[in-house]
């Protein structure tokens, strides 16, 4: 069984590197630090290497121990968490490739199985939830610190328990975490509720110019390069905007354009019921999931808008 | 034990009326319909009387069976759910007062214990969660229909499992509901996520003029009588606006003014960490909870704003 192999490889490794996907979210950082804390508790030497990560997760235990790089040339064991493809490991794929043994733990259905051992469960709402069974198998106790990391991944990847990916086990495990003193309410507030003043301002701009087209079935808005520069926006600051349009009654598809530094637009699509926005984005060389997809379009605003809307219209009922 | 009395009274009653508080929310309607469904399942004759209620809950089982009034002059048993005070039963308090026996089931700490039997638990995040123990005690099985009603109350009163009132039992019970086929994700979406076009428009207006005062510690915004009339806003359409200000980093107090049809303003206050907004509102004849309170102020906008802000400032660190 794969969990036997994973346990054995972890037990025999003297130095372990933990890696995750680029532009890491709560599940990426939460699972990395949970595994780090668990390995540390069992006396293992491990490094978590993440070159860039958002400050919003600074409340997590072991956050200060994340490394931006490592001088280690060859790890005994590399463990990739929450990452579907070796390409998404980005600048630090070499640590993975150079390691003697490679393990992949993930919940993306699109995982390319790029490890020697791949423990991938697309039915799990978060990689953090998969780690629970790993820890249980290995006999590692989930204490408050590890639990805080795991809860963070579960909360962010389920939109605060709202997605249909949430299973009875997710709620049962969260109940156990509460019993162990993990402050679910505080984590929720930090990772999903509070936004920075910059995020507020850019949301205000985007909402202010949001249009509802095709009898209110399409919501459309955008932000310019100039606005992003003037406000000194960072990665992730525009997140949440496309969902505002999606969550208005009657809207089937929400489209949000973000002008890129090099020109052109990154388009984010969300749909509610029946439009497969991944198909729409495929027409522009992009892709994603049926209800959340994206593409890049190298045209001026009005032309980009016209093309994307015309294509989307064809899928409306 | 009180649950013995409640069981006995329900068993011996031939006709039962279920009542809840005015401007009913998800926990009020959810608990009323859950109890209605449960009584019906045990062959009891019951009426749920609610004169006005939001359409957003129309997906609930037995929603069509809610009555706006009743010709019954005297019920054997009246059960008040989720209501802290007989005054809040509003126009239908007479059904309660005229009943032979009166039961109060609630989770408000401020409950005035106005029944013959009062089953009140302020530690419970929702009246729906209290009903679980009632049903269990009475041996009534929580099926998918009853579960859908209970989940609705829990989801709305906990802000989607985010409040610190949520207990391990809340998550454990939700896990059971999922196992019974209750669609938690769909309920969440209907009651917390989707907003109407009118709600979107009024949010946009209020956000557009939101100001951040006192080094960003106070968020302030308002909507006018004219805006509400032009958009034909209904009760509840302005909900959520005050929380936008509260959830911006650095804000301690968020204030939202809604002009009243008769002139003057209804002020809603929310705080994050240390300001007791109930104390602030008390100065203007209002009140509420430490982190959520309100008052009415009969002054023109600029004067109302000035007075409320000056008072709030005194509580800032």
Identify the CATH architecture of the largest domain in chain A: Alpha-Beta Complex
- Rounded to the nearest angstrom, the radius of gyration of chain A is 21 Å
Which assembly state applies to the chains in this document? homodimer
Task: Flag low-confidence runs of chain A.
Answer: none
- Tally of discrete structural domains of chain A: 2
Identify the biggest protein-protein contact and residues per side. A-B, 41 and 42 residues
- Cα(first) to Cα(last) distance of chain A is 47 Å
The strand line-up of the biggest sheet of chain A is: 6-7-8-9-11-10
- The secondary-structure element order of chain A is HEHEEHEEHHHHHEEHHEEHEEH
How many β-strand stretches of chain A?
Answer: 11
CATH fold annotation of the largest domain in chain A: inorganic pyrophosphatase (n-terminal core)
């Amino acid at each position: 069984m794969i969990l036997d192999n994973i346990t054995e490889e972890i037990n025999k490794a003297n130095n372990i590197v933990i890696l995750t996907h680029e532009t890491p979210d709560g599940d990426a950082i939460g699972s990395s630090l949970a595994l780090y804390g668990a390995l540390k508790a069992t006396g293992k030497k491990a490094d978590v290497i993440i070159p860039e990560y958002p400050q919003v997760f600074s409340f997590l235990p072991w956050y200060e121990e994340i490394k931006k790089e490592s001088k280690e040339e060859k790890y005994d064991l590399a463990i990739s968490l929450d990452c579907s493809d070796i390409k998404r490991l980005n600048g630090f794929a070499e640590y993975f490739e150079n390691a003697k043994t490679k393990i992949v733990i993930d919940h993306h259905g699109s995982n390319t199985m790029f490890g020697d051992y791949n423990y991938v469960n697309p039915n799990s709402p978060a990689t953090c939830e998969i780690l629970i069974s790993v820890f249980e198998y290995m006999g590692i106790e989930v204490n408050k610190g590890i639990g805080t990391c795991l809860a963070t991944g579960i909360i962010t990847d389920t939109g605060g328990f709202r997605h249909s990916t949430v299973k009875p086990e997710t709620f049962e495990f969260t109940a156990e975490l509460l019993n162990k003193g993990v402050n679910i309410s505080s984590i929720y507030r930090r990772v999903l509720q509070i936004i920075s003043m910059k995020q507020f301002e850019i949301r205000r701009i985007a909402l202010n110019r949001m249009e509802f087209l095709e009898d209110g079935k399409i919501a459309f808005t955008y932000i310019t390069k100039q606005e992003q520069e003037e406000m000194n926006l960072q990665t992730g600051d525009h997140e949440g905007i496309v969902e505002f349009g999606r969550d208005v009654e009657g809207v089937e598809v929400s489209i949000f354009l973000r002008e890129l530094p090099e020109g052109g637009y990154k388009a984010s699509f969300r749909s509610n019921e029946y439009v497969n926005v991944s198909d729409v984005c495929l027409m522009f060389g992009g892709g994603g999931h049926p209800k959340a997809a994206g593409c890049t379009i190298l045209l001026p605003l009005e032309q980009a808008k016209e093309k994307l809307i015309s294509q989307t219209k064809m899928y409306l009922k």
